[in-house]
Amino acid sequence: MLEDERTAQLRSNILKTLLVIFVLLGLSVMYVVNLEQNKALDNFEKSTHEYIQKTAKYVFEDITKKYIIVAYRLIQNQNIAHYVHTNDKEGLYQALKPRFEQLQRETKYFKTLHFIKANGLSFLRVHQKDKYGDPIINDRIMVQEIMKTQKTLVGYETGKYATVFRVLVPVFYQGEFIGSLGIGIDPNYIIKTISSIVKHKGALFIKKDNLKLYELDSRFDFSINNFELYSELDGKNLNIMKNLPKDFHFDGNYLMNYQNDKYLLYAIDLKNFKDDIHGKLIFINDITYKFHQLKNTQFQIALILVFFLLVVFMVIRFLIIKFGNELNKFYDSIISNTKKSETYLKAIEDNSSNIIVTSSAVEKQIVSANKRFYEFSGFTSLEDFQRQYSCICDLFVIKEGYLVKQMGELSWLEYILQNPTQIHKAIMKKGDKEFIFKVTSSKIDFEGQEMLVSTFVDITEIEEIKNRLSYAINGSKDGLWDWNLKTNEIYFSSRWKEMLGFTDEELPNSLQSWKQRVHPDDLEKATQDILANQNKETQRYENIHRLRHKDGSWVWILDRGQTVFDAEGNPERMVGFHTDITKQKEEEKLIQLQARRGEALLELPNYAQTLDEKEFIQKGREILENLTKSSVGFIYFVENDEKSLELVSCSSKMQCSEEVFDAQNKASILINTLRLKKPFFVNDYSTYADKMELPQRDIGVQRLIGTPIVEEGKVVMVVGVGNKNEDYDSSDVETLMLISNDLWRLIKTKRDTEEIKQKDKLMVSQSKNAAMGEMISMIAHQWRQPLAVISMSANNVLADIELDMVDNESLKESSKEIIYQTTELSKTIDDFKEFFKPVKKSELITPNKVFSSALKVVGKSLENNNVKMVKNINTAKEIQTYSRELMQVFLNIINNAKEILIEKNVPNKQITVTMDEQEDHVLISIADNAGGVPEDIIDKIFNPYFTTKKELNGTGLGLYMSKTIVEKHLGGMLEVVNENGGACFKMKLPFILPNEKKEA
Amino acid sequence: MDIRELKEKIKDLKVLFVDDEEEIRQGTGTFLKKFFTDVTICEDGAAGLEQYKKTPVDIVITDVMMPRMNGTTMVKEIKNINPNVFVVFVTAYRDTLDDDPNLADVDIKKPLSYEDLVEVLKTIAQNYSK
């Protein structure tokens, strides 16, 4: 009993306790549920607002991008700059109109297209063609701004007639700012676009201050707290707006009740180009349904609670044990609704290719991570990861310049948050490979808890490319340039600048840096080539031009590049490389110079031969002026005293005078050269005299180079040139020395040759005289007899007269005799005339025939001197030869033989001529029996001026001339030997003359 | 002196004329025959010497340069026979007489002028009138 009582008492106690517990539990559950509901609603508001904000941001960015591109393309494609430059308003209108209409077809909210000139006056409103010339600058701060900065501006702006979302782009003509092109988009476009995404109605409010300019009436005449409604809004929503409190703050979200319905209002900022608030967008979200949903949830919870209490009551023991778990489940079901958005977010996170990690703000411990994190780190779950680490930063590879767990005083997360503008990078390893990540972190409020969301973007490849590119650009010998044709911005690599002697900082990245340094002679062609490439006339841009180095010298640049075109085929940017080819250019120049020098050196001997000395020196000076690109020049001979100068050649422009270069006159720097015996060059001749403390001379000479020609330690000639267009250098001096020395050599050779020529001339005339003498003597022989007969006939007639013995018969006889003899005389003359007749052409003739002709002339002389001629002719070969010259040789040798025979008074004087045919020539020997040539002179008898003859006609040239004729003209050979008691001249005559053989 | 008187004085002197030239022999022979009655003509030195040996003469007129035997050789031979013979050289070249300037009484140069010939005849006349 007692037992039962106790049990009953205990039970009632337990039940009482349980009941109290249940009531308390029930109350607390209700409280918690309510709290969670509020929280869920709050979250809902927040996330929705965030969504709207993000959407708005994207839409803004999208529109901004889109219309900046539209503006640039209009500028490039429609050649706006050209029309503006030429002030061709109509042309511009016609060019822009089709595009404007097309843009309006795309969206009716495309409102305005307006070109404003650099002076701030409206040039053309495509949307309102007739209105122009009005000053825009006074009212529109964006226009004021772009005139100052000449940079693209984007933002909301309210003008006289409308509030628009405006894009304003600067326009340049040949680098000069000539105005700006503005595009205006109706703000309703943005509202509509955002609404279509977020499914909430929107309204536009403009700050009252900004509407001061606006001349038209506000359409809705509704304003609240300094903002005025500026968009279409239906009645219901307008009414909602009108129910807003007068101090509505236009900030974040606002929950309001209107006619039993609940509405959430979200405000979005509209900003002008300065990022100041210009107006607001309000989106109205009807959340009545959402409220009902929440209420339903509450009701469901109450039912579940009752059911739960019943079940608990029935299976109390189990309930007590499993109370916690059931509550958890219960809780889960309550908040499942709110969890939906979280799952949604999670899906986005997991689908991201970036690692996203959430950490608690306080402990910095990882609380969640996306799929990519596990893929990268190799852990299967958060628990798996947490078994080893607590922070993702434990995976960071320690490296200078990259994030590590502890950044000085701060943890890595705090460091990121405190340096938001900086780019943070971290390295993490996957296997052995290091990956570089760009890390961003932001603080979010998650379910009342501060959380840190960190995003790791894999930039390994970008970094590698960046490194490679940077290496390629800065490690390369070539200098890179990258020219944005739309913004006219240009980038020059440090190597580009280094080529010109500048460090990266010294030379600004602007087109002027290049333009100002281009050689004036090269600029036009280079500009042409660049434009040709941009206009697609050439596939590649290539140009060689000179750029002024920092030190003032010229650097030869091979510039190669290519234009990059956008999708519409308009030039977008131009990229190229500079290659320093100064060395090659110099080498090329040197090779060219050497070639020209070589040419000159080859030319000079020809001139030396054809021109007389003065003309030749004149020519030499001209060649020198040419080679050194000089406009003046002079050449002086220096007398043996090394003081007196003789002006030989001087260009007319120079006005050289003997006086100027008088050795006594110390003013001349040329005299210094003469004294120093060294070449010199002066590139500032006008001040040179001053520097040398010499009086000013040679007016008009700016640059001068000179060189002495030294022979056996003495200056013999001074050569100079001057007034090249640019400075002289050592290569010019080299040219001058080289050519001058050759000039002098040729002058000397020429003089020597002249001397030999004179000698030859003398010899020829002497030998001619000798030949003439011989001829006369031969004529004398021929004529002696006829003359004797004639004179005797005359004598007989005279005797007859004196003796009175005259009779007709004897007179007749004497006359006939005289007439006969005179015909003999004239025959002799004809024979000799024949011999003297110049025959230039060779002929085909037997040597014997020539010899017989010679005998006709000399025969009488031999007869008179009792010289017997014996002929052994064993050939009838006709040879190609100059018969006249051969005859002269025959006569010469026969006469020599005859003379030596007479001189030595040899008994049975005899000359034997033998002719034989051999291989390709005829061998002729003419031998006498006068004892031969003494051995001591036999080697000399062919020398000119050598003679043994004592008589008048012995010039010593006969045999020299004979040898010359046979060997040089007839292509044969002539020599002398002693044989058979006399001298024997042996002559070989070829069948064909050597020069004719070539022709044959 | 009249030329006819001259002829009278010398016409009986015997003359030997030697020359290797046919036309000279003819021309000069004709001239000599106008003044001398007895003129013998030979074509060279050898023939002249032979003729002299056969028929000696008072006057020898000869060319110098001749084949076979020249004038000087012939004169030397003749002078060996009769040193008093009167000799006239008719030359073209003076130098051929250089070895013995006294060999000839007179020498004249070709071609012979009338004055030269008359002078020679006068010399002969003077020589034989002593």
How does this structure look, described?
The complex is a heterodimer of chains A (1000) and B (130). Chain A has 1000 residues and is α+β, with helices and mostly antiparallel strands. Helices cover 47% and strands 24% of the residues of chain A. In chain A, a hairpin with a 2-residue loop joins strand 27 and strand 28 (714-722). Chain B is an alpha/beta fold. The chains are: A alpha+beta (1000), B alpha/beta (130).
Tell me the fraction of residues in β-strands of chain A, as a range: 15-25%
Provide mean pLDDT of chain A, rounded. Answer: 81
| Anisotropy-based shape of chain A | rod-shaped
Main sheet record of chain A: 6 strands, antiparallel
Task: Describe the structure in brief.
With 1000 residues, chain A is of the alpha+beta class. In chain B, helix 2 links the parallel strand 1 and strand 2.
Give descriptors for this structure.
heterodimer, A: 1000 residues, alpha+beta, 5-stranded antiparallel β-sheet, 35 strands, rod-shaped, B: 130 residues, alpha/beta, 5 strands, 19% strand
Write the layout of secondary structure elements.
The complex is a heterodimer of chains A (1000) and B (130).
Chain A: H1 2-77, H2 80-85, H3 89-106, E1 110-117, E2 122-125, H4 141-149, E3 153-158, E4 163-173, E5 176-185, H5 188-198, E6 201-207, E7 223-224, E8 227-229, H6 235-242, E9 253-258, E10 261-271, E11 277-286, H7 288-314, H8 316-351, E12 355-360, E13 366-369, H9 371-377, H10 382-388, E14 406-407, E15 410-411, H11 412-418, E16 424-430, E17 433-446, E18 449-458, H12 460-475, E19 479-484, E20 490-492, H13 494-498, H14 511-515, H15 520-534, E21 541-548, E22 554-565, E23 571-580, H16 582-610, H17 613-627, E24 632-638, E25 645-650, H18 669-676, E26 680-682, H19 685-691, E27 704-711, E28 714-722, H20 730-802, H21 808-836, E29 843-845, H22 847-864, E30 868-873, E31 879-881, H23 883-904, E32 910-918, E33 921-928, H24 958-969, E34 973-979, E35 982-990, H25 994-999
Helix pairs in contact in A: 1-5, 1-7, 1-8, 7-8, 16-17, 16-20, 17-20, 20-21, 20-22, 22-23, 23-24
Chain B: H1 3-10, E1 14-18, H2 22-35, E2 38-42, H3 45-54, E3 59-63, H4 71-81, E4 86-91, E5 106-109, H5 114-129
Parallel strand pairs in B: 1-2, 1-3, 3-4, 4-5
Helix pairs in contact in B: 1-5, 3-4
